[in-house]
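Ticket #4471: structure output looks truncated?

Reporter: J.K.
Steps to reproduce: submitted the chain below (106 residues) through the standard prediction queue, then opened the result file.
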Amino acid sequence: MNNLLSTEDNKGIYVRKIDLVKLLAEDLSLTLKDSTEIVNYVFDKIAEALADGEEYHHSGFGILEIIQRKACRMHNVRKGEFTVVPKRNSVRFTTSKILKKKINQG
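Returned output as attached by the reporter:
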């Protein structure tokens, strides 16, 4: 994985927001403050769209969409009792064919 855009620790390799901010600042000759504002703006807009029930489509990457999960009964093994988990919204990510192809070549 590209070391400029990843962090590795005992949990594995992952991308942090600050890694993305630093890469954006370096590639576009921006200040860290400006690139932080850009990254925050983009993710805030995606979150607002999802909160409004809209899907987010990113060509070549995938689709983020809200799905409704039904209420269900769950058994708490530690307490030995059943609880009801209410219906709730969740975010589903569907990978694009282009991204699937790219990650499976590797």
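Triage note (M.O.): checked the attachment and the full token line is present. Residues 1-53 form one domain.
Status: closed, working as intended.
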